[in-house]
Amino acid sequence: MSKQQVVKVQQFDKDVPIEFFKLEDNIELFNFDYHYQCNFYQIYWFTKTQNSSQLIDFESYDITDDQVWVIYPGQMHNIDPTGIKGYLVSVNKDYFNRIIAQEFKQQKFRLHPPLWFELSKDKKALFNALMILFEEEWNTQKRTVVLEKYLSIYITHIQDLKELYQDNPLIDTRVLKLLELVEEHYTKPYHTSFYADKIALSVKRMNELVVKSTEITLNQHIQNRLLLEAKRLIGYSDLNIQEISAELGYSEVNYFNRFFKKQTGITPLVFRTNVKKVQ
User: Which of 100, 192, 212, 244 is the most exposed place for a label (fewest CB within 10 A)?
Assistant: First the structure.
């Protein structure tokens, strides 16, 4: 496997939707020569770091002690775990979405990734106790019903931490539905009226809600999602540009090339070359 390819990762056991790992005891899970793209959520609590950083969707982020990070399904992720201590809880996507629908009063996990939080000193003993509970259950019976309860408590307390990236506002649930629809349909050439119909609003009113909550229009959300997926495929797949264009719903590769250059200032082939140089 070349470094230009991404490793597609699934959870170990489809019957256990919540998994628990101590980072320092499971370094073999990470080969930092490659990028990983998981089909599940990952919640990292980094307890000890050493001038550490990670790459998420082409951006580098520093990691410091007592940060909690959420890596979303489909994100390109690369981390060297050498010298890092902490915990990883991986969660099936459907499971995670069901739990946060119940527990997250501010829906902080429903907007723009990546997302990370600062663990305050007064919360550290509580988080340590939760990790002990996770570890005990994981190393013994692995009962989903128990792990789910621990996860629900964990998520409830994470939402009380200081969010380091941005303060996501409490937004209209219809906007959350729209963002989910974008994730599901962004490769399809649907007009904005398709999305407006799904939440029983006019296009004008829909865009007013989206801009108020996220500061960009629905069309911009769709374009941003297309661009991110294009970067992932161009940088970390063996597909040629025409195949990528077709996969993203473009009838002609020239249309895709114009879209990509307009958004990034460079052609897809130049972007691929630049990514390979970095690798």
Answer: 212
- Two structure tokens written together for 218: 């629905």
Q: How far apart are CA 204 and CA 211, in angstroms?
A: 11
Range 100-125 average pLDDT: 72
Q: Where are the domains of the chain?
A: 6-163, 173-278
Note the CATH architecture for domain 173-278: Orthogonal Bundle (1.10)
Per the confidence metrics, is the pTM higher than 0.85? no
User: Considering the domain 6-163 in this protein, what is its CATH number?
Assistant: 2.60.120.280
Q: How far apart are CA 235 and CA 239, in angstroms?
A: 10
Tens digits of residue pLDDT in 55-79: 998 889 999 999 999 998 888 899 9
Give the SS3 label for residue 159.
Answer: coil
46 φ/ψ angles, rounded to the nearest 5 degrees: -90, 110
User: Residue 54: left if φ>0, alpha if ψ -120 to 50, beta else—which one?
Assistant: beta
- CA distances to 111, 240, 273 from 246, rounded to whole Å, are 27, 10, 21
Residues with Cβ < 8 Å from 205, sequence gap 6 or more? 196
Pairing assessment for the beta strands 115-118 and 162-163 based on DSSP bridges:
antiparallel
Per the CB < 8 A criterion, the answer to whether 65 and 48 are in contact is yes
pLDDT of residue 168: 47
